[in-house]
Amino acid sequence: MPAPLPPRQLAFALAHHTSFAREDFLEGPSNRAALAMVERWPDWPDRLLAVIGPEGSGKSHLAAIWAEAAGARFLAARALGEANLLRALSTGALVIENVAAEAVDERAMFHLINLAREQGAYMLMTAAAAPSGWVLKVADLASRLRALPVVEVGPPDDALLRAVLVKLFADRQLAVDESLLTYLLKRIDRSFAAARAAVERLDREALRLRRPVTRALAAEMLRGAPS
Q1: CATH number of residue 165's parent domain
Q2: Count of helix runs (H) and strand runs (E) in the chain
Q3: 41 & 135 share domain
Q4: Under DSSP, is residue 7 helix (H, G, I), strand (E, B) or coil?
């Protein structure tokens, strides 16, 4: 009779703390301009600013750095409505996250911008793409958004992506060697989101198989990727 297979450990999805403190922000060529603009506050070219970039690029971290300095409230774009405009601006500074043409009440956003101007409030918006390219029904809103200063967070270079991988592993209390980092850098997409997904999957597989997080495990996980 064949030998019984060893029991497989269940991998539980445990919460991992992500720090949005300034000292934990990893700076590189792709985000240096955005960080500099955030830290220039209140010396902005306008009281409103849009920070754009792909998912997982660090926009929320930049927003948190600014919110800490400015005492800003946070509001998801989908939660914006005309009934909560005054409350949204109650501290004189507001972060609106994940703004997009299909994810915002256009009339509420139009009135919010006007109200912010009237009150001299500051607003920082995060979005995947520049507002100038959005297709909007409210023409006056489109005009106001096109006039906003925009700062972009681009894809990370190798040095920054490596630093992000090290931090993501460290956040999970995982010590890894250079061979694993080099292997991952050659095979994952050039994005923070891809780095986060790879680290999460490696951690989960290591727990399930009761093995250390190594290059060999990554090779098994990413089998089929170009060598």
Answers
A1: 1.10.8
A2: 9, 5
A3: yes
A4: coil
Contact 62, 34 (CB under 8 A): yes
How would you list the strands of the sheet with 150-152, edge to edge?
73-76, 93-97, 122-127, 48-52, 150-152
Rounded Cα–Cα distance for residues 143 and 136 (Å): 10
Model pLDDT, residue 1:
43
| Residue 13 predicted with pLDDT over 60 | no
Q: Report the greatest alpha carbon distance in the chain.
A: 81
Domain count of the fold of the chain: 2
Residue 4: is the preceding peptide bond cis (ω within 30°)?
no
Q: Which pLDDT score, from 0 to 100, does residue 17 have?
A: 61
In this predicted model, what pLDDT tens digit does every residue of 145-191 receive, in sequence order?
999 999 999 989 999 999 999 999 999 999 999 999 999 999 999 88
Share of the chain above pLDDT 70, in %: 90
Distance CA 204, CA 121 (A): 44
Domain of residue 147: give its range: 22-152
